[in-house]
Inverse folding.
């Protein structure tokens, strides 16, 4: 027969390791309730409790934490799927049908009409469209053509004047809008949905900075926060529709590494973009 203090001590050792490694209150709660039951019937001698019954108690615990976690994960996944569907139905239509001027204004681009309608872009002062004393300015291509969108079968049908792309990695979904009709092209961040943690409002709608523009891929970045040296996010979209996202958490990394290793990153990534 099992001595009560030995039985409790063994259980404490087994379950304490679980408490340490989990952050889920839902997963921990069943064990707390179980211990309450143990201490209730240990008002009697543990020797009086049949071993098979004790085993049944342990067997009943299997999957308690798992079921709560699965429910939580399933619910999160369902909500995320609903958010994506809602964006495709409501927001994507707006992005496809709004005028260029309205879209640019929506994304915080000021005085865009001055440059979009210009016959000779070389006569335009583009300094207003560059950040003051920002290191990323050295890498920016202000006048780009969007070659990857025109050359790629993933993006050039039914037309190439406007592309709304949905790009996913393992944590979030990005929505990019490329305005390609006029001499001055624009690449915009139009939406962001997070699957794991974070806030969907972390990314504001904004004009993006093109850093490389070739047939095989396009490399671009978000804008630079005021207290950072470089942008916090770099992206690559390839002509095959592959997608790579680098989170420059501290804003200290220049895009040089991404530019130099673009082909490798494209080969390695499992993430993709689709045209909406």
């Amino acid at each position: 027969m099992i001595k009560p203090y030995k039985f409790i001590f063994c259980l404490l050792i087994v379950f304490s390791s679980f408490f340490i490694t989990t952050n889920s209150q839902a997963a921990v709660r069943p064990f707390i309730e179980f211990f309450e039951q143990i201490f209730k019937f240990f008002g009697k001698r543990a020797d009086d409790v049949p071993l098979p019954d004790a085993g049944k108690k342990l067997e009943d615990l299997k999957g308690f934490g798992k079921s709560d976690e699965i429910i939580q994960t399933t619910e999160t996944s369902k909500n995320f799927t609903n958010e994506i569907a809602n964006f495709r139905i409501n927001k994507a239509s707006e992005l496809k049908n709004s005028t260029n001027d309205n879209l640019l204004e929506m994304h915080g681009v000021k005085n865009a009409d001055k440059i979009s309608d210009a016959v000779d872009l070389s006569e335009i002062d583009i300094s207003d469209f560059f950040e003051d004393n920002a290191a990323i300015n050295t890498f920016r291509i202000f006048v780009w053509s969007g070659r990857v969108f025109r050359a790629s079968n993933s993006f050039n049908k039914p037309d190439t004047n406007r592309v709304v792309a949905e790009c996913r990695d393992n944590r979030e979904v990005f929505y990019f809008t490329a305005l390609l009709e006029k001499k001055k092209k624009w690449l915009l961040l139009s939406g962001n949905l997070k699957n794991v943690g974070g806030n969907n409002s972390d990314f504001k709608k904004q004009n993006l900075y093109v850093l490389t523009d070739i047939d095989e891929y396009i490399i671009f970045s978000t804008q630079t926060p005021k207290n950072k040296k470089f942008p916090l996010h770099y992206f690559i979209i390839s002509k095959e529709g592959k997608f790579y996202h680098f989170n420059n958490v501290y804003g200290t990394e220049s895009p040089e590494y991404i530019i130099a290793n673009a082909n490798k990153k494209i080969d390695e990534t499992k993430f993709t973009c689709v045209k909406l």
Notes: The chain has a mean pLDDT of 78. Strands lie at 162-168, 172-179, 186-194, 206-207, 209-213, 217-221, 233-238, 242-247, 271-275.
